[in-house]
Amino acid sequence: MDARKVRCREIVETDIEAVSELLTRGFAGRTRDYWTRGLHRQREREIPAGCPRYGYLLESAGLPVGVLLLLYTQRTEACASDIRCNVSSWYVEPEFRNYATLLTSMAQKHKHVTYINISPAANTWPIIEAQGFRRYCSGMLFAVPLLSRAESGATVEVVTGSTAAVAGLPPADLDRLRSHADYGCLSLVCRIGGEAIPFIMLPKRMKSGRFPMPAMQLVYCREIADFVRCARALGRFLILRGRPLVVVDANGPIAGLAGIYTETRGRKYFKGPNPPRLADLTETELVLYGP
């Protein structure tokens, strides 16, 4: 194959249908609608100036033969701004695998960006580490929040995309909860006294392993300690909706939470100047595309 016939370029809006078709071939079990919906969500969201909206593709004879999706987000916390990029779905047609490094080199070229990989297959862990990524999450806790210690007087309310205001909740938190409700997440506020504590979760069905039952994935809370405080109230709320388990990113058992910790799945990596924290998967492939 003549390398001059293969080029790497940014994905543009007119590529969406062809990229969806390529990813459908590359990922068994994912439908074309799954990819098209996620790419349309990427089209609508705000991204930092100068960053690609969708990612990059390899092109040969005018057709995409490889793709790497990237989700850029400008993050502002505690007066410090940074750019984060979720390195998402990667696929290259077998006969073009020799050119796959063109994609990875484009994906990690900005030193000021923090890159995260939240869904690496176990067989790729050594490769990711060789690329300079560091682990920030070693596994996950399958928590049964209903079995946790109760916080006196805690209540739970739902936030939707049309919620105008929540007493005691800062505008940034409300915007985050509303936008993720529109993505199909369950956005909640646990109220303890006058304190409003935000949470975002996503329905997740455990299809195999020790827990083949409906669950929720914790997408966001300010800190794990907040989830521990509100676990019993959240557990009562969720079990009425048929979701007894909550999957929580963790680096070991979490004091105050009943559940089982495992490192067989859930490992996550980052590369860049600002290490991510646990319990913040907002604006990632998990919510834009789905579990």
- In the CATH hierarchy, what is the class of the largest domain? Alpha Beta
Q: What is the level-2 CATH architecture name of the largest domain? A: 3-Layer(aba) Sandwich
Q: End-to-end distance, in Å? A: 36 Å
Count of individual helical segments: 7
Widest beta sheet: strand line-up: 1-2-3-4-5-14-6
Q: CATH superfamily assignment of the largest domain?
A: Gcn5-related N-acetyltransferase (GNAT)
Report mean pLDDT, rounded to a whole number.
Answer: 91
Share in helix: 10-25%
How many structural domains does the protein architecture include? 2
Q: Nearest-angstrom radius of gyration? A: 20 Å
CATH topology of the largest domain: Aminopeptidase
Q: What would your notes on this structure say?
A:
The protein has 291 residues and is an alpha+beta fold. The protein has two domains: 3-137, Aminopeptidase (3-Layer(aba) Sandwich); 140-266, Aminopeptidase (3-Layer(aba) Sandwich). 24% of the residues lie in helices and 34% in strands. The chain is built from seven helices and 14 strands. The strands form two sheets. Strands 1-2-3-4-5-14-6 form a seven-stranded mixed beta sheet, with helices on both faces. Strand 9 (186-192) and strand 10 form a beta hairpin. The two termini are 36 Å apart. The model has no long low-confidence stretch (mean pLDDT 91).
